[in-house]
Each structure stands twice: as structure tokens, then as C-alpha cells.
């Protein structure tokens, strides 16, 4: 089963502890620092649109891009003024024109498990950015995969559903696999829970690999920050922001 097909139904339920408002403020601060306070912004791997909507409410015209029809279906259940949703693979996305910035949060870029695909995503982003436009994306760090997720099992139970997450991290390949078993409450019969299984893969990218991919994709690295402190990354940083600038187009 493809990632996020059945999990889409309970994604927001289990993600209610994610600090989306803090992440929004971080993104707004980064965009403002690079003088992008309005205009069109694309959200890669937008999922159910939680960040897309927050940025739209902050004054940006938004394009939400995700390859899951199920996730986008949930996103479009919310008011979408100023938002265009596109069901596309970020490794081959297409826009009708350029945008002021591209953002990607909630470790969407870690799902790009092939290095060549990562370079292609960066190349596409560079192509669709306005001259001097900004690409901001977060990543789970290798430290997080090694020390926090590792070969652990996580579980959570809610009234509407529950999950068991069995995690495995391969240090040699940098691939993190997590097997999800989901129990989702039936809407018509609350006493009945349907079982689903999914397998997700992510890749841990070392900073040097990210720098190399940005160079090969044609972008200039501006800074890499600890996503919790908004200061330079440390050895124990668990999530980081990468900020890069468009290269190649001339300003009008």
C-alpha cells in the first residue's frame, strides 16, 4: 500500500502534537529576513494542508503540492481561498509560472530517498523560483534517526484510531523504514476498527550531501539552522532548516 493512503484518514489526529504554529512563525521569519513578505509560495509535500492554510492566512497566495490524492482530499475539505492544490510528485512537479518561494516541512524531503531525485527536486525548485527566490525545507537529521528513532517501536491510542510504529534505521544505507499498523474506527459502526498496514521509507542526509545536492541542483546555500532554536546546527540537532537561493535568472 502506498504511503499515506489509509493513514490520511487519521493523519491530523495523530499529528495534533506537531507545533505547526511555531513552524509557521519560523518560516515567516525566514521569508521576511530574505524580503519575501508577499506573493506566490509553493508548499511541497503539503499533505492535508495545515501549513499551506497557515501561510495563506498570513497573506501569501499558496500552491499546495502533494502526490497523495487522499491527503489532498482532506486538505480540500477546508476553506481554500487563495490556495491551489496540485496532485503531483515533487520529483517531477510542474507549475505554470514562477513563485517567490518554495517551502517544504514535516520532513517531506526525507522521503526523497534517492540522491539523484533530491538533486532533481532542487533543480525543479530553482527553475520555478523568481529571480533570487528562496527555498526553505526541513529535514530530520542523521542524529535523530540514529539516536531517537533507531530500532524502536512507538504506539499511540486514540478514541478514533490507534497505530503501532515499528522503526528500523540502516546506518550503512541511511534508509529509515517504519512499518505502520493502523486501526481506524468505522464511521458507521463505532465499535468496529479496520486494520491497515503501511511501510514508509525516509533517508538521512548528512549536511555535506545536502550542500553537494544544492550545488548540483544549481542553487546557492544561504544557511542551515536548528529548527528548534533557529541557531546554527549542533551535533545533537534533530531537525534542521535548509535555506537556499535561486540562481540563474536575471531580475527584471
UniProtKB/TrEMBL annotation:
Highest taxon of the source? Bacteria
Report if keyword Protein biosynthesis is assigned.
no
- A GO molecular function held by the record: methyltransferase activity
- Keywords in alphabetical order: Methyltransferase, Transferase
The chain's coiled-coil residues are none
What SUPFAM superfamilies does the record point to? S-adenosyl-L-methionine-dependent methyltransferases
Please provide the Gene Ontology terms (biological process) for this protein.
methylation
Could you tell me which CDD domains the record lists for this protein?
Answer: AdoMet_MTases (cd02440)
| Residues of the Methyltransferase domain | 41-133
Name this polypeptide is given: Class I SAM-dependent methyltransferase
Q: Which organism is it from?
A: Roseburia lenta
